[in-house]
From TrEMBL:
<feature type="domain" description="N-acetyltransferase">
    <location>
        <begin position="18"/>
        <end position="170"/>
    </location>
</feature>
<dbReference type="GO" id="GO:0016747">
    <property type="term" value="F:acyltransferase activity, transferring groups other than amino-acyl groups"/>
</dbReference>
<dbReference type="Pfam" id="PF13508">
    <property type="entry name" value="Acetyltransf_7"/>
</dbReference>
<dbReference type="InterPro" id="IPR000182">
    <property type="entry name" value="GNAT_dom"/>
</dbReference>
<dbReference type="InterPro" id="IPR016181">
    <property type="entry name" value="Acyl_CoA_acyltransferase"/>
</dbReference>
<protein>
    <submittedName>
        <fullName>Acetyltransferase</fullName>
    </submittedName>
</protein>
Length: 189
């Protein structure tokens, strides 16, 4: 009976039309409020945050989802990093994705997935070789992110290995990559 009622409610619920686009300076306050609400203030203590602090996101890779009225209801950003060094001793350029968040009033409508696909598509279009992130494998595996790609890499701080995932945009990009993730993006003025 409960399942039937849920279906009826879902049928009559107002549908959300949303668009994905580039974040603008006018979106920053709404994005920060959304992140505080979705992840709490402890989000600033994460190891990933050390990599992002004082840096600008990778060129063209700060995206937001907007509702029909233009309000920010989702956010994702990607950051330039070096994912350790390759076997020949050169730094392995890559991206770190995060945070990803969707306003919980709009959860389960495909907005997170749309943000992920737009981010990965744009990263590939811009010629990047791989995207790494720290997050729930149960969510990110559907987008092709797996922990085996990061097995010789470490974050600069505490992290759970099972949540340290990567997607290669170019085949074999992370093959042999080993060492610590370091920020390599443009610094904030
Ligand atoms: C994770 C998040 C971005 C998903 O956004 P969303 O717009 O609700 O996602 P989608 O509608 O595209 O996908 C929903 C599906 O993902 C699943 N899902 C959501 N979070 C999940 C998680 N942490 N682990 C596994 N599955 C998850 C839902 O159960 C749903 O599954 P279904 O399609 O089988 O019903 C959103 O829940 C959020 O902002 N969470 C708080 C911040 C956060 O945890 N960010 C990610 C860090 S791991």
């Amino acid at each position: 009976m409960a399942a039937v009622l849920d279906s009826v409610r879902a049928f009559f619920a107002p549908s959300t039309t949303f668009t994905i686009g580039a974040e603008t300076p006018a979106d920053v306050v709404a994005r920060e409020n959304l992140l505080d609400h979705a992840m709490g203030p402890e989000r600033r203590m994460k190891s990933s945050e050390k990599i992002r602090r004082g840096r600008l996101p990778a060129e063209g890779l700060a995206l937001v989802a907007r509702d029909g009225a233009g309000h920010v209801i989702g956010t994702v950003r990607l950051w330039n990093i070096e994912a350790g060094i390759s076997q020949d001793g050169t730094a392995v350029d890559a991206l770190l994705l995060g945070p990803l968040a969707v306003d919980d009033a709009h959860a389960g409508k495909g907005i997170g997935g749309a943000l992920m696909r737009a981010a990965v598509t744009e990263a590939a279009h811009r010629g990047h070789g791989a995207v790494l992130l720290v997050g729930d494998a149960a969510y990110y595996e559907r987008f092709g992110f797996f922990a085996d790609k990061t097995r010789h890499l470490v974050m600069p701080g505490p992290f759970e290995r099972a949540r340290f995932l990567a997607l290669e945009l170019k085949a074999g990009w992370l093959e042999g990559a080993a060492g610590m993730i370091v920020a390599s993006g443009r610094k904030l003025a």
